[in-house]
Amino acid sequence: MQDNFDSPWKEAIGRHFRCFLQFFFPELEVDIDWAQGYQLLDSELQAVVRAAEHGRRHADSLIRVQRLSGESQLVLIHIEVQSQYDSRFSRRMLLYHTRLRDRFDQPVCSLALLGDGRRSWRPDHYVEALWGCQLALRFPIRKLLDYPDWASETVNPFAWLTAAHLQAQATRNHPALRAEIKFRLIRGLYSCGLTRAQLLELFRLLDWVLALPPKMEYDFKRDLARFEEEHQMVYVSSVERIARKEGLEAGRAEGLAKAQREACEAIRQSIQERLEQRWGPVETKFRSQLAGVKDFQRLLGLHVLAATAASMQEWAAELKA
Questions:
Q1: What span, in angstroms and rounded, lies between the C-alpha atoms of 174 and 70?
Q2: How would DSSP label each residue in 249-265?
Q3: What are the extents of the domains in the chain?
Q4: Each residue of 174-211: pLDDT tens digit?
């Protein structure tokens, strides 16, 4: 699966910058006069990026803030969300920092948020030296691997986004496991006291990060809608709108029939993956019998049993029934 990490992070930082600092850099958050607001300067940053000729860096953000000290100077905070190892990362941080300092003639604080999977890779400085002349930059970093890969009972969006990011990395080659984890994680949002608007926004961000193969999306959203109905939630309409946007509107007979076929196929695939994860390759005769099951509700039951049965024989007995 091809994951998109940069875009959700960039949007979340722009919309919830104070929460970002509270979660990752609390020592900076308390030094900012939030009553003055903050200003996104992404277009100015892109001019620097293009001039540096290092290609596109989707998650870079540049934000202007006012400090509490009463000084009239502005602080420009340059943020990097780096999701992959990059041997030239520190040099690029220095290049952007010096170009921004020159462009705005103001102090710059460069921060790095490292979202890669290498626990030992922690670039926090860059130094060039020649004949006693030295150019150096040291910058604060945070490593997502140092944070919990789960979230609960918090309204800070970056606790949830960090957990989703780490879970997405861990399940990149295991779509069935990702679907299960995604459902559990999003289900946890409902117990955090979030407003409807907050929940829908976080749902969208987590849905973005924990992307599923197309054939598994409908299955996931059906399960979520069923969960909302059972718990008398008021958010079902949001899931229904997503389903309609993807052409799964139940009111259209032809679309519904196609959606049901795709949902059945997706859940069969998920069942087989769960069985293989627990007990190894599934026998051909069982795969053939499973392919013959057309009833969606029965498939749901087999899906649950694939995760809860004590043995393959127990699951197979239900399949034959």
A1: 52
A2: -TTSHHHHHHHHHHHHH
A3: 6-146, 157-320
A4: 888 999 999 889 888 888 888 878 888 888 889 889 98
